[in-house]
Please model this.
Amino acid sequence: MTSLEINDLSVDLNSRRVLKNLNLQIPSGSFAAILGPSGCGKTTLLRSIAGLITPSGGAIRFGKQLVSVSSLVLPPHKRNIGYVPQEGGLFPHLSVAENVSFSLARKISDQEKNQIVNEMLELVGMKGFNDRSPQELSGGQQTRIALARALAMKPAMVLLDEPFAALDQALRVDISEEVVALLKKSGTTSIMVTHDREDALVSADVIALMRGGTVVQSGTPAQVYLNPISAEVALSTGDIDVIPAIKLANSQYSTALNEVNFNLANQPAANLGQILIRPEEIAISDEVTAGAVTAKITKINYYGHDALFELKVGQSLQSIRARITGPSQYRVGDTVSITHNGPIRWISSEAHEVNL
Amino acid sequence: MKTKNLDENLHLESIEQPGSGSKLLVLLSFFALIFAAIPFFYLIKGAFSGELDLIKTVLLREKSLEIFATTIALMSCVSVVSTLLGVSLAWCLHNVNLRSNSLLAALVILPIAIPSYVYTYSWMSIIPNLQGFAAAVFILILTTTPYITLAALAALRRSDRAQLEVAQTLGLNKWRSFYFITWPQIRNTVSAGTLLVALYVLSDFGAVSLLGVDTFTRAIENLYRGSFDRGAAAILALVLVAISAILITIESNTRQRSKVISTSSKLMPSIAESNSGRSRFLASLLIGLYLIFALITPLLQLLLRFISALPSIDYGNLFRTALSTIFASLLGSIIALLLALPVGLLSSQASKIGSLTDKSLLIVHALPGIVMGLSLVAFGSELPIVYQTVALLAFSYALLFMAKAVGFVRTSFLRVPKNLMEIASTLNQSKAQSIRRVMIPLATPGLLTATLLVFLSAMKELPATLMLRPTGFETLATEMWSATAILQFNEAAPYALLLVLIAAIPAFLINRPDKSEESGVNIS
Model:
């Protein structure tokens, strides 16, 4: 169990800068998720932590131990990390027991090895599978054995590279919950790379959001969800509406949602910006009173447990979405009143330009 | 690897960059390269040992030009027809539902076990006055077609069927689909097969000698045996090597420019798509005719001759000769594997040195058996301890077929998913341990295939064996050759039949479809 600290990490691959001055801290014993779209560099970051890639600059520390500085690195086999790649990556020529005991030193007796293998298989719910070959296992079972293999060496840290990506949705939720629970129970610092925001939000103690080769925001799931630093970051953790807004005196804001005659014209540039709103923070009602902001329903996306309404607001025709749970009597074309019941997330136009 | 002490008092290492390779592998590859250079050194030394006028005289005499023209014409005719025939056979076996496609594929590939001189022997014992250029073209087509069929079939099995299906839904008929979709996917493999055929024809000695066609190999043998004029023989050998080297370079450059990549993440299962009666009839006719000429007739003839020879067979000698053949070939294939392992491993790791060594070794492909024999005779005469030993004979086999072995070894290592090596390294395994515990076990089937391929080729090798075998040491090929050369067809039959039977085993094993593609485990 160890903490991870990364400072100014840069990685070049094929003459292209993939990671750019990346900084990240993961506390000891926590389960961290690195979340980002394809091509943002998250797998490169994981491989750099594992020692499979030589960085061009920056430093990586496991606790107090420096494992990488500039282009000097501690080789992977000396880092004591457990690595669980996509689809498990089991050795096809070895049995389940041989896979699990692969990292155990030769000086350990066969009896001790068998004991560790049995303990690990029991831990991942695969007791009795010792003599099976990887070909005989399902995708979920292969992932579990890969985890047992990684844990057998009592690693300081476990790295998981989209371990559930190849599993079907139903199995994925179950396996993901099991694996995360196991890792949290073992107290091993774990870092999982994923592009699935639900995976990250549900399981992680810490989320690091990546864009363009760097970590743009990190924190607890609640912190990054509720206080995103930009619209793009907000979008990576959930649906978001970006509403043009005017900054007023006394930390008040004017938008199409709180002012019937909202108009951006003739405002000083310094007062212009956007407000970020999650769809679940918009409430709708069929009681349209005088002076209320109204909107017309243009589309309803029904998901079973909830529905996402697309609306056009009053005269401004500003688009906004509202997430409504439970049964609803509304139809496309209905006019409803809307209210915003969430925090104000103000992004000034200048900051917006920088962040996007 | 450089190490550096840091303030934290920890030892960090600069990771091995792709392209550097380990020092031991580089050293071993360098040794392989030095061994491969031995025949070239003695060949060049032999060619330039006399006066420069000799080179001019040998190259510009009318007979040499005639030999050059005959060799090129023979190579061109055989390469073109074999390629057309081989691709057609492979296409039929892959695309037409013939009910027993796997068995037919094994039978069509089986002639790879029959060397050209056995074919010539078989057909000469049916048509005693079989002689000349056309006969040589016929025999060499029968001999070399399996090389193309094997390559094309493997490429078709790997081809992206999804692309073909999309093309057909977009309105392309079968011919246009083949031309625009399938052919670009198999072109590189087929062209490598055609190169093998061209090199086979250039280096063939048995068929052209028995059929009286004056090509380079026959002329070199005549000069060597007739006058012991090794200088003139070496000059002609050098020309032959130059032609082969040019062909290899052209093929290699063409291949580099025309890489086609499959876009589907998973290849579609191989399904024979054509069930129409006309397709089946035409495919059966083509395969049937080929099998009659290339397999049934020669084997039947061998059997008949064998039965005729039964009362007079010297079983003791037959057994001894078989053992000698297996021993020398096995020794040669093991040496070839040992030389090929470091080069193939280094080359598979995207090492620049490995790739350079690998490409340099391709030139060994250009060495026909007769030239290898000539060079190693010169080498042996300077190193009497190895001259006329089985070790030198096995070494010649290893050098002759090392390039083939390197190709197989490299491909076997490349097929081991890179991520498994990385996973091993995160599981406390050093690079050497990862190679030993993961890479070599997973590449073993390919390494065995490489060994078998060299073994098969060495068993059939004739011209170098004739020159380098120790006195009194005979192989099945040399015994058969001696009897055939004096038209004692019955006496030759047991040796020829046994040679074909033993060579058929590795030929059959090599042709097995790769089972790993059917494996359900996710290893990449």
Notes: Chain B has two domains: 21-47+313-474, 61-261+275-310. Chain B touches chain A through 32 residues (CB under 8 Å).
